[in-house]
Amino acid sequence: MPALEPEILVIMAALATMVVAAALTSGVLRVLLVAQALYWAMSYVARPAVLLTVLPDPHFGDNVADPRLAALGYDVAIGEVLRPVAFGLSVYALLVLGYALWSRRNRTPRVAVLAGDPDLTATLGVLYVLGTMARLAAAATGAAGGAGEVQSASPILSLLTMPATLGAVGLIVFYRSAKPVNTALLLGILMLGELWWTTTIQSKTPVLGAALAIAVRFALTGWSRGKIAGIGAVSIAGIAGFDWLQSLKSTPYLRAQAELIDSAYPEPVRPFLGLLRRFDLLEAATDAYYTGPSTWLSPGEVVGHLARSMIPGQLLAEPKLQSGTAWATEVRGASVDMSQISVSLAEGNVNEGYVIGGTAGVVVGVAFTAVVLVCWSRSLYSRHLPAVMFGIALIEVPVVFERGMLGSAETLGKYLQVVVLAWLTHLVVVEWRRYRQRTTTTGTAVPVSVGSKGSE
């Protein structure tokens, strides 16, 4: 294997620093930092390492072997493309390390107040049932869509499937039962449901979100050797079986074509190519390199788009910016012919910041991600339902892993509507439980405290 580029070594050092920062913290933040390091390692270390080792010729249908990198020479191009990434991740690693050291000196025990709360559990159950019905309807009518699609065949059905995400991830994190068998059974059902939805929409997000939710659950309830072994087994099984799951939806012709493309890679790498292709931030870094620094949006335009992202589209006179789609047409379109392709792409915080504001934009982009990460980790300990629901939503949609400022704001704005729906569902559930308790007593009303702490 050829020597790794210096930029890759800097990235590896930054990711190792993030793991050290995770070790200095505790609870949810530790899990999120480790997950972030693993996610970026797949995009910025594993994928470049495969390219430098194999030096594959670009072929249609193979997005690992980028023709733009091959044209410049992988050894030269990867170093140039990853230079802003190495700088940005180094700044990010120092930021999170500084916060970890500060929080270690000012550490106060945190408790997930709503863990096991019967009202929250019932609300999440209702959301999951409603969302699953929408998922089944979307799959039956062919409106489920897929990863990277600009718009769904049925936007209403697409919106209605989102409560299933909140319900599944929320129950994985917050459900508590005195009987371990009940917990194991529910978690198994929820994981299988997310696995099915992953294959239906051909996206890694649902199953990775469910795996992250299990890790967050363990962060709240405490780790043990059995739990670590369990989540390791689930992760390995998911990675090893990802290609097989995707092949269930492919035709024999497409499978044969994929095998032909994969034959250019060494045998040990082939089982992981399907998963590796979905960690595509190296492509976004290549887009940014070819576009250049400070060439996309002005700072004023960015601020305006961030503000509009939190306003429902029905109240705006013009459509909101879809940053993933704009990146595909305006940024990637500068070096790749995207005229016949309609897709939404992940841009990454460093790459977005680079094309918006150069070095300063990279610093602002990674700082924004750090703030979102810390707020996210704290929201899951909140006693307020909206904050908890936003925290649950971010477990499923990996904005701090593969999106920048604009994509993160879009996601938060989109889930704002779902959180409102969850809050209304919560009110109905609370009133229904009060009514049931009153009718089951001997005529004496029994008060039910909203947001009471359940069994831990």
TrEMBL record:
Keywords carried by this UniProt record: Membrane, Transmembrane, Transmembrane helix
Residues spanning the membrane: 6-25, 37-55, 81-102, 122-144, 156-174, 181-199, 205-223, 228-245, 354-376, 388-406, 412-430
Protein name (database record): O-antigen polysaccharide polymerase Wzy
